[in-house]
Amino acid sequence: ACSSLLQAARGYARPVTRKRKDIPSHLDDLPPTMLKKDYANLPIMNSMDDVVKRVLSLEMASQKEKMKVKTQQLVEKVRRSPNDNGSFEVQGKLKKGRILIRTLEEHLQRHPKDKRNRRCMLMDVDRRRKLLGYLRRVNYNTFESTCKQLDIQYSPPQPYARHVTKRWLVKKALCIKVYQETKKLKAAKRLKQRREWQARARAARK
């Protein structure tokens, strides 16, 4: 018979089963009967068997295939015309960034200690903010409609403010002094070269 201390140790070492959070995905609104992107527009699919359609549908698809279909739906939302393939909204990374950011948000809700993916998500958010800022400067109406269609909330970046310290002021003054001295040396060197060129030109004329 095992001692009570050994039984307590075994019970403590037993792995604890935790329930996973049931987090809704942004890909759940895709119907499972929808075909994959590569097979959706093929005319031969109308004459295929139901079993084949089920295999080629989103029910048996991976997350990558579902993201392709989701991206195509977002392109159809922001497209200016049926034949629009060259506008900034269609070719840019806004739609792809939106899907990747939502996917990483759901992943971090399940795994909050994943620092690498958190860093990737923050980098994607900054990249999307830069693209939206460019679109806002170029065409504000398109910027508003794109944010509304893609369900994106744009927040302009905060102005950069540095904490001024005595060490930073001394370093800045030294950098300015070195820059001015270097500028004087380059000016003297340019003046010397110019005088040499003028002297050679005079000698060539004579």
Automatic annotation (TrEMBL):
SUPFAM superfamilies: S15/NS1 RNA-binding domain (SSF47060)
SMART domains tied to this protein: Ribosomal_S15
Protein's UniProt keywords contain Transit peptide: yes
Record localization: Mitochondrion
GO cellular component, one term: mitochondrial small ribosomal subunit
Pfam family, one: Ribosomal_S15
Entry keyword set: Mitochondrion, Ribonucleoprotein, Ribosomal protein, Transit peptide
Gene Ontology biological process terms, A to Z: mitochondrial translation
UniProt cross-references to InterPro entries, sorted A to Z: Ribosomal_uS15, uS15_NS1_RNA-bd_sf, uS15_ribosomal
Molecular function per GO: RNA binding; structural constituent of ribosome
Domain of life: Eukaryota
Family: Belongs to the universal ribosomal protein uS15 family.
Name assigned to this protein: Small ribosomal subunit protein uS15m
Protein species of origin: Ptilonorhynchus violaceus
